[in-house]
Amino acid sequence: MASLRTADSRLRSYFKENYIPQVCEALLCGLLITCPEDPLKYLQKMIITIMENGLESLLWDMCIDPSMKPKIRRLSETYMEQLFGLDDQLMTPELMIKACTFYTGHLVKTHFCIWRDIAIPLINEEDILAEKMEKAIEYDNFRLQKYVFRLWHSYAAGQKKLLTEALLRIRKMCHHYKLIITLTKWRDKARYEYKKREDELMLKHELQLRKWRSKVKVAAKEEPIPPGHSLSKASLLGEIPECDISLLPERAVSQIFYYLTLRELVICGQVCHSWMLMTQASSLWNSIDFSTVKNIITDKYIVSTLQRWRLNVLRLNFRGCLLRSKTLRSVSLCRNLQELNVSDCPTLTDESMRYISEGCAGVLYLNLSNTTITNRTMRLLPRWHSQHFFCHSVLTVYSWSLFNLFCLMRYFPNLQNLSLAYCRKFTDKGLRYLNLGNGCHKLIYLDLSGCTQISVQGFRNIANSCTGIMHLTINDMPTLTDNCVKVLAEKCTRITSIVFIGAPHISDCAFKALSTCNLRKIRFEGNKRITDACFKYIKNYPNINHIYMVDCKRITDGSLKSLSPLKQLTVLNLANCIRIGDVGLKQFLDGPVSTRIRELNLSNCIHLSDASIVKLSERCSNLNYLSLRNCEYLTDLGIEHIVYIFSLVSVDLSGTNISNEGLMTLSRHKKLKELSLSECYKITDVGIQAFCKGSLILEHLDVSYCPQLSDEIIKALAIYCIYLTSLSIAGCPKITDSAMEMLSAKCHYLHILDISGCVLLTDQMLEDLQMGCKQLRILKMQYCRLISKEAARRMSSMVQQQEYNPNDPPLWFGYDYEGKPLTKQEITPLKEDEEITVTDSIYSGEEEVV
């Protein structure tokens, strides 16, 4: 539609007067929004509506249904005025006149005010200037004060800061001075108390030693000591203590007699009538160990004992006993028997085993290791009834050992622990009997060590019948292969513990096969086929807590890295794995396993250094046992960090470069109970003395083959370490009888003593041990030429195990029979084809050597 801006004025007026744009706008808006089906009728209807309402009330949305009206803001009175060009110009003449008038008036007013200010002089100008000057001065003073105050504030803040710092320094100096005074007084007091305690301890030691010597002399004068007897504590004290054991509670009496051997219990029963009644308590005869008296006990006594206590006996041990078959049959009287050990019994026969199996059906533990079985089988065949034909066809070919296995499985339905170690009479077909009858389905522990006759088929028979095995021990088995382990792992998925010591043909494939089992304990030793790859399978055992991989030469640092994620590992033994170094141990300790590890054996890992010990002290907060034997690069710096492993109770530093400084540092630990320093040539008496002063709870000490040590270490042990239970001074030729006298007088809890190679010790030392060390159980006296055979024979009645050899020490000891060091020319290397025979005499408490 063309614009009407240039149209005739009358036409424009006509449009405005008759509201033509508003009518068109309303109609068009209605059409556009409503979109009626018949537009003409819609327009007719709307026009009529507009006529009825009048043009004055016309709106642009009048023709739109109320529900469809758009919600917009009205910008102007009408939109059609612009469409038809009827709207007036924004700048009309009236508006221009009005704007010009306003501008002109404003301009006149502005210029008039300026003219007035300039043309008409001020009446009170001086007062105004004075007032302005006063304000200016006041403002200037304010700015000056503000500037001065700012400078003063900065200066005051700086001075305050300096005063605060000076005050802090003065306080620190005063506190430091007070600390110095306090520490000085504490140090003086500690030194005084330490010296006083040392003096009191030395005085007490001297008094006890002097009293002990005087009592020994008096007792020796009054009554000579017969051979095979020793002075009692009562004789040393000169009085007989009054003690009636019958007054003690029955439970306490039973506990006391429980620690006695069978021989000691019988002797106590012969003291008096009350003691006899106390030794007849049924609880004391639940467990009978005949192996401790195997060389002196008679068959008649065994039979009578078993007949008397047949209802109470739960555990029997006949290990190594040489008994008649009739005696072994008496075991069948013990109907409640649960544990039976007949290992190393050369007289065990088939018939005896049959009687035992028929009478003791409740046996849970059975040890038949290293036993021999005869071929007397035909007379037992009629007892098998329905199995007669089968047994006849088999037993006529095989030995009684197969039939004996069948007997075990039939009459021991609850058997849980079975040891067939070194029993080489049965074959693979004999192992098929394990699955007959009730079988051995409850078997948990099985020991097949040394049974080299078992092949893969034999292990398959075991796997088919003993699926519940959890603990498997197969030592000294050169014929054991990966296939044997595979057939076991396929069926025996409950295996948690394996011990394969002396199985050189086991490789990484065995660990892959065992990945289906929930292993918790692994023991391998002397295997050269196991590599780092096996540890990749081991890390898939989430519950494993014990790894024993000794003398596996192909294990490297990569194995330790694979073990680091194991969260349950508590025991790790990698002794003689010479390829392990600091890098592997660091990677191992960086994992979560470091917080759980309790025992760590890294003996002969020669590449380890002080850096490994630093890492151990940082990560292993719960480590109890540590072995670093023969780690040549370990020095006193590493020993200093061992002190910070506060949970440590046992440490082996044999063959290291530890010196006296390291021992002095180690003495600060205070909690060590076991220490091994064998072949540590840099330590002296001073270092051992310093260590003993700080280790009052020491129980085990090994300083063997340290020829530089003398009597001073024994004196230090006697003074400070009175709770010592085990001592090894083998290869220390400077030890004399006077030192051993002090040890016997003070260390009454000594159980194990090794004095092999102490060439200056005589019979007097044995007499002192008999008088002072009543609890001594194991005594080793190899190469002690000044100790006579008679004295050794008398001493054998005091101990359970004794080793004695009066020969001169061998050349590798490094000194001669007088204790003098040998020169390099005197120490000649032994030829490979040269054989040296050493005669050992071992005395026990039950046997005397003629």
Automatic annotation (TrEMBL):
Residue ranges annotated for the F-box domain, each copy included: 242-288
CDD domains, A to Z: DD_FBXL13
Domain of life the protein comes from: Eukaryota
SMART domains assigned to the protein according to its UniProt record, in alphabetical order: LRR_CC
UniProt key word Transmembrane helix: no
InterPro entries xrefs: F-box-like_dom_sf, F-box_dom, FBXL15_LRR, Leu-rich_rpt, Leu-rich_rpt_Cys-con_subtyp, LRR_dom_sf
Pfam families: DUF7885, F-box-like, LRR_6
Keywords attached to this entry: Leucine-rich repeat, Ubl conjugation pathway
The protein, known as: F-box and leucine-rich repeat protein 13 isoform X1
Species this protein is from: Vulpes vulpes (Red fox)
Gene that this sequence comes from: FBXL13
